[in-house]
Write a structure and sequence with these properties.
By secondary structure, this protein is α/β, with parallel strands linked by helices. It contains 14 helices and 14 strands. A seven-stranded parallel β-sheet has the order 3-4-2-5-6-1-7, with helices on both faces. The longest helix is centred in the N-terminal third of the chain and has 14 residues. It is globular and about 70 Å long. The two termini are about 20 Å apart.
Length: about 450
């Protein structure tokens, strides 16, 4: 099905073609006609499926011939996701007169006020807290909003934004169209949804427990004290270029970033304690290839698209299975392929089994033949690790002073007939729809 068959106007079809897209993704095929009809929609689609274009394109279509006013409001949980949506919307609207803006916290509010009070915008992407700040300063009025989008709504609730969402709903006209995109529906979100939507149509294309088919998953059992050593070994392999490494905590991310930097890896850190400028610089450096590794907490598990991201590595097994799906979704987006590795200590095996139960399949267990799983970790906090016995020329050790248990050098494959024989690296993507390109994906 071509985009022209979805009822989009010529100006937006030009934007789609200029971006190099030809075929809409399934969520776009389903959602765009519903949004054009004016229906309230609740949509669940796997990460990287092109859902941003699924709501941006029909909203822009409806606003094309209208007088300038703030008619569309898109709420997102994080600064990174808000910025990504704004970039995607601006890209698709390049051949129209529509103005798109973005506001979020962590930066000076003055320029955002001047943008809104000056020429204004037709579509505003915002984080809830900063939108309420601007409204309280009488810098933005929401009286003309005709379409509200709640993107990654479950994440907004998880981050404590449910009260803010209810306050924003009270500021909006009651007669409006509301679109809710969410991987899950926690109880607090159900309450918000009841207040926000009227007789919504549900679009359920892929449950959150189903990672993208193009992602090769593997679990590397390793003693906790040798995780940094094994990670260093994996990062030195030729097929690893752009990588996001996930940790559970902000302190863990900072500590691991320092360790990898001392091991010679170009690295940046991204977590909630970083300023907005630091976070933007970290993402920019990864996208431009200035750093090889971005060490991040789950703040980066949604709404981050990086060109040529070959791997996602879970340094810590996530406690929530849903977080695993969102983490590994940073690679293998849409029709692309990628690798997702998880370093699992014996203490984390229960969490890993919960993840496998959640996604409905076993994940390949892999041991590295030339890695010494019996080595004694060096007792350095952030210092350079000692070289391990039997280690390859590029592998170096690191640990926290405890002795690791040995593992069989043979790869142990869980029962999964369709699984590949082992992780395959360096594959190139296929892309032909919004939400699936390397630069500015949606």
């Amino acid at each position: 099905m071509p985009f022209a068959s979805l009822g989009l106007p010529p100006a937006l079809l030009r934007g789609v073609r200029a971006a190099g897209y030809h075929t809409p993704t399934p969520v776009q095929q389903r959602a765009i006609p519903l949004v054009l009809q004016g229906a309230d929609v609740v949509a669940a689609a796997q990460t990287g499926s092109g859902k941003t274009a699924a709501f941006v394109l029909p909203i822009l279509t409806r606003m094309l011939d209208r007088p300038h006013a703030l008619r569309a409001l898109i709420l997102a949980p994080t600064r990174e996701l808000a910025a990504q949506i704004e970039t995607a919307a601006r890209d698709l609207a390049r051949f129209t007169r529509l103005r798109v803006g973005v506001v979020y916290g962590g930066v000076n509010i003055g320029p955002q006020e001047r943008m809104l009070r000056g020429e204004g915008v037709d579509m505003l992407v915002a984080t809830p807290g900063r939108l309420l700040d601007l409204n309280g300063r009488q810098s933005v009025a929401l009286d003309d909003v005709e379409v509200l989008v709640l993107d990654e709504a479950d994440r907004m609730v998880d981050m404590g934004f449910a009260p803010d969402l209810k306050r924003i709903l009270r500021l909006l006209p009651r007669k409006r169209q509301t679109l809710l995109f969410s991987a899950t529906m926690p109880p607090a979100l159900n309450e918000v949804a009841r207040d926000a939507l009227v007789d919504p149509v549900r679009v359920d294309l892929a449950p959150p427990s189903r990672p993208a088919a193009g992602i090769t998953q593997a679990v590397y059992p390793v003693p906790r004290a040798l995780k940094t050593t094994l990670l260093n070994d994996l990062l030195h392999r030729d097929d690893v270029s752009g990588v996001i490494v996930f940790t559970r905590t902000k302190r863990g991310a900072e500590r691991l970033a320092r360790q990898l930097e001392k091991l010679g890896h170009p690295v940046a850190a991204l977590h909630g304690d970083r300023t907005q400028s630091q976070r933007e610089r970290a993402l920019r450096d990864l996208k431009r290839g200035r750093v090889q590794v971005l060490v991040a907490t789950d703040i980066a598990s949604r709404g981050i698209d990086v060109e040529d991201l070959t791997h996602v590595i879970n340094f810590d097994v996530p406690a929530a299975p849903e977080d695993y799906v969102h983490r590994i979704g940073r690679t293998g987006r849409a029709e692309a392929t990628g690798d997702a590795f998880t370093l699992m200590s014996p203490e984390e095996e229960r969490d890993m089994k919960a993840i496998e139960h959640f996604i409905g399949r076993s994940i390949l267990r892999v041991t590295v033949p030339d890695f010494d799983y019996k080595q004694r970790p060096a007792p350095h906090g952030d210092g350079a690790p000692a070289r391990s016995r039997g280690e390859s020329s590029h592998g170096r050790g690191h640990g926290d002073g405890s002795r690791g248990r040995g593992h069989d050098d043979r790869a142990r494959v869980a029962a999964q007939p369709a699984a590949p024989a082992g992780p395959v690296h360096g594959r190139r993507p296929k892309r032909d729809a919004p939400g699936s390109r390397r630069r500015g994906r949606m």
